Structure formats: C-alpha cells, structure tokens
Amino acid sequence: MAPSGASAAAKPQAWGEHLSATAVRRAGFDPALLLVVPAALFMLLLFVYPFVYGLVLSFEPKEGGALANYHHFFTSNRLWPTIGTTLKLAMPATLINVFVALPIAYRMRQPSPWRRTMTALLVVPITLGTVLIAEGMLTYFGPKGWLSQFLQAAHLYDGAIRLTHNYWGVLISLVVSGFPFAFLLILSYITGIDPVLARAASTLGADSRAQFRYIYLPLLAPGLAMCFCLAFVQAFSVFPSAVLLGAPAGPTRVISIAAYEAAFEQYDYSLASAIAMLMGFVQLLIVAFVLSLRGWFYKGPVGGGKG
Amino acid sequence: MNEGIASVATSPVLPVVRTRPANAWTSRAWNALLWGAIVLFLVNVGLMIAAVGVNSFATRWFGGWLPQGWTPSWYADAWKEFQLASILWVTVEVVLSVVLLSLLIGVPAAYTLARREFPGKRALLLLFLLPLMVPPITYGIPLATVLYQTHLGGTLTGVILANLIPAAPFVILVMTPFIEQIDPNLESAARVFGANTLRTFVHVLVPLLGPGILAAALLVLVRTIALFELTFLTAGPDSQTLVVALYYAVFAAGVRAPQSVDAMAMIYMAVTLVWLLIALRFVNPTQLVSRVREHPQH
User: Fold this and answer.
1) Total structural domains in chain B?
2) Which of residues 148-207 of A touch B (CB under 8 A)?
C-alpha cells in the first residue's frame, strides 16, 4: 500500500511548511504540491501503467506478427460483429435515456417537493446496480411475470411476451439503469442555469418552448454532450445484463463479453487486451464526435449559469 | 449574469422570441405525457423490486398473481448456501478500505488542486477525470492482467486496489469544488492569531471540511457497494463482494432455486438501500452522478 503511506507522510510535512510557503514558493517550489503526489502516483501506477501495458501486450500476440490480434479480431466472425451488436444496444439506449430525461428534467427545473421525491426515488435503480436490475427483470418481465400477466389480463397484448433472454431485455435494463443517471445529471446541469435569464426572456414574450430553445438549450449543450458521453460509456460497456438478461451466445454478444471470454476462458490476455483497446477506441471516437457536435449549438462562454 | 441579460435583450435572435398565445391544451397534454412517462417508469421499477421481494418469500410461484404459499426459509437457505456471512465480511472490508484510502489519497490532492495553480494542473485533472470517462471493463481487463502477474489478482488487496481507481478520482472531483468555496482567509486568520499548523488543521480545516468529507465518503461507499465490473474481473473465490456473488448466483440460476437467489438479492438490496438512505440525509441525490460538473473546461 505504498500510495497511502506516502500520503500520510506528505500531509503533515506540507502543512508544517505552510508558514514558510511564500518564501519557498519564491524559490520555485511549493510544498503543498506534495499533497497531490500520492494521488498522481496512484493513478499512474494503477490506471496509466496497466493501460499502456495492455496496449503493448495487444501487439505481442501468442502467435503471429505484431498485428495478429487485430487481424484476428477483424476477420473472426465471433469477434468483429460484437462492435455492431454493442452499438446497436448502446446507441438507442443512450438516445432514449438522454432525450426522454431532457424534457422531464426541464419540466422540473423549479424546486418543488415533487422534485425532491422524484430525485430520491430515481437514485434507487442507480445504486441497486445492473446485477440486481437483471435479477428483478428476470422475475418481473419474464414470460410468467407480473407484466405479461397484466398485459394479457388487460388484453393489451395477447401473444407470448418475450422480454428476457433477448435484445429487448438488455435494452430495457440499459434504460432502467441509464435513465435515472441521465435525468439526475441533466437536472443538475439545468438547475445550474440562472433562472433570471429565462425570466428576462419571458419578459420579452418568450413562452416556455422558446425559452427552452433559445435560453436553456444553448447553455445546456456542453452539459448535454457530456451527459450523452457518460450515458453512452455506461451503455457501451454493458456486461452483466447482456449475460444475464440477453442471449450472450448470439444477439447480445457484446464486445465486453468477447473481451472477458478471451481473458478468462481462453486465457489469451494479449487478445483480450487488443479487444479492450478496440473497445476504448470505438468509444473514444463516439465521445470525440459528440463533443465536437456541441459546437453547433453555441459558441459563447460555457459558464452562463450561476456556476 | 448581467451581460447575459443584456445580450438576450439586444441580440439579433430577438425576433424569433415571438409571443405565442399559450396553448393550454397542448401544454397540458405534454405535461400529462411527461408525468405518464415518469410514473410508468417508477411503477415498473417499483413492481420489479416488489416481484423480487415476493418471490423471495414464496414456497412455489408458477404463474398467477401471487405465490401458492409463503415461507421465510429461503433467507436461511441463501445465508448458508451462498456463505453470505463471509461474503458480507469481505464486502465490509473492501468498502471500508476503499472509502478510507480514497479519502486519504483524494482529500490532500483535492486541497492542492483547489488552492494552488501550477504548471501541469490541467494534465493532472485530465488524469483524474479519465478513469471516470473510460468504462470499467476497458481498463479493468488490462488491470486484471497486471494484477494477476503481480500475484495480486484474486486477492482482497487486488480488489481494493481496483476499486480505488474510480473512487479516488471521484473523491477529488467532489472535494475540489467543496474546498474552493472555503475562504482561504480563514486559514490565514487562524495563523495571524497564533494558531500553529496542528491547531489550524484541527480547529479550522477539519470542521470546515467535515461535511464535504462525510458526503464524499458516503458517495464512495454507495458507489463501491454497487460497483460490479472491476470486482468481478479481479476477485478470486474468497474475495468476492456481495454484488459479484449475486451475479454468480443469478448466472447459475438453473442450479439453485430462484427464490433463494431472490432472497440473496433482497439481502443485497437491503444493504445498499440502508446506506443510500443514510447518504440521502447528507447529500443531494444528483451528487451521486454529477461527478463531472467541475470539468476543467468550465
């Protein structure tokens, strides 16, 4: 546990020298900077190093040349379609989550007892996590669960209802866990926008829709882009629900399942690292694309709110 | 803020902000649609949780609205069958270590990031932000490879280290804005009145930082209990936390009675919800997700 030890040592030292800090700073070194060293070292050692290690390892396959893993990935029928499968799940889920959460969060921009209750309730599915949601959905959405019984009793839908062990099960689970996340994040961005701006617009005759289009949306664009990225990252790395609720051999064989199988079933860490790197790369492309989109909305200062 | 109003008032977009007669009917329909969506969502999630609860007390439940009979025995079953006592103990060990270590690493770093400007600060912020932007599976697999090579994989230490990767940056991102809003003059004032470092720390900084540290600790605690992927990738048979054990139980659902799995799910849920309720007394629910609000671009 080297990092924590270093932190304990660094703390008293830096505070102890606080008085002479100005003198030392003049000499070019500020002891308070030592406080950040354990955290930085820890991240370098446990985040950056494994990442770089994985990148290097992915070019050192068990057999073949440096690019053999990547060649294998793009030629194997078991591997390359996983990218499409994952995107086909993650994209609709993220779009639903963000663009359903947006009008609801906008509606609740004024503080009210309702909002407190809602936010407290919506936090529950996030904290329960994907594994519990998967187990709950197997019971509730299953062919003999309450939902299909209700739909059949009410004659809303009479056919067999299959919402588990297929694409839809995974998509629903991504919405159940992702929607509250998107809602709370967007709500925190919206409440950060100064309501005085909207009041000024309304004095000038803007109705709620115009206020949204010309005041909130431009100010919200950076936050919305960030929210989309985070929601997408979550959906893109879908693992437990794709295994438990989906059909992990076929329609919901997502890229994280492929990476996991390579690492822990075939013990081919090199191939697994290659898949993980490709996964990171695809996701980085999407994040970069979305972040570049937000320039369309608004080019002014990003603050604008009460901060 | 004033410039904001001025620019709205004088900007060329003014003509489009036209007066529209408020259409009461569409706005009411829109409201109903939004409320309908939210109620539908909450009702279904609530029933989903209730279904797990009901099933965990059922003797047999094959179709029908309610099970044929009721029994509490699945809980005792799950407790024995899944060795929940040891799993709970591991969970407590992992979660407490992660909370303590992430505070120990994160709070001093947040202090410096809040109080000092230095070259490379943006790069450092990016380093702390990246683990929250990259999904756990992507860096979890190379990390697990490294941990298994250093013989830390499958051990409690490995699980704690892996869980610290998102936890420590999270503490930093929660604490930095919190420390920023504490007036640095308070520290200087204490020193002017002759307080030494220890007294300044104990009587000024700790009381002021207390609420922030408590909030950060609770947020990390709730998130760590539910964090699945990293523990799953790094845990061995005797370093599984509750959520990973639950995954294996659901995964092997054919082997065990579904009621027993649901009983275990209820135990997991109870553990999580108790801490969530405690956390909600001290933190705003949005804090559980809005970790990137203080992104360097702002």
Assistant:
1) 2
2) 149, 176, 179, 181, 184-185, 187-189, 191-192, 194, 196-197, 200-201, 204-207
pLDDT digits (tens, 9 = 90+) for A209-235: 888 888 898 888 888 988 998 899 889
Q: Please check whether residues B97 and B211 belong to one and the same domain.
A: yes
Interface residue B8 vs chain A (CB under 8 A): yes
> How much is the pLDDT for A130?
85
A302 vs B298: CB contact, 8 Å cut-off? yes
DSSP labels for A4-69? HHHHHHHHHHHHHTSTTHHHHHHTT--GGGGGGHHHHHHHIIIIIHHHHHHHHHHTS-SSSSTTHH
Stretch A239-265: mean pLDDT: 89
pLDDT at A300: 54
More confident residue, A236 or A114: A236
C-alpha–C-alpha distance, residues B224 and B238, integer Å: 18
Say if CB B222 and CB A124 are below 8 A apart.
Answer: no
The predicted-structure confidence for A166-219, as pLDDT tens digits, reads as follows 899 899 999 998 999 899 889 988 988 888 998 899 899 888 888 888 889 888
ipTM: 0.81
DSSP-derived secondary structure for B40-53 = HHHHHHHHHHHHHH
| Topology classification of domain A70-296 | MetI-like fold (1.10.3720)
**Is residue B208 within 8 angstroms of chain A, CB to CB?**
no
Integer CA distances (angstroms), B261 to B55, B56, B75, B246, in order: 9, 8, 9, 7
Whether A295 has a pLDDT exceeding 80, the answer reads no
| Cβ-defined contact of A244 to B251 (cutoff 8 Å) | yes
Residue ranges per structural domain of chain A = 2-50, 70-296
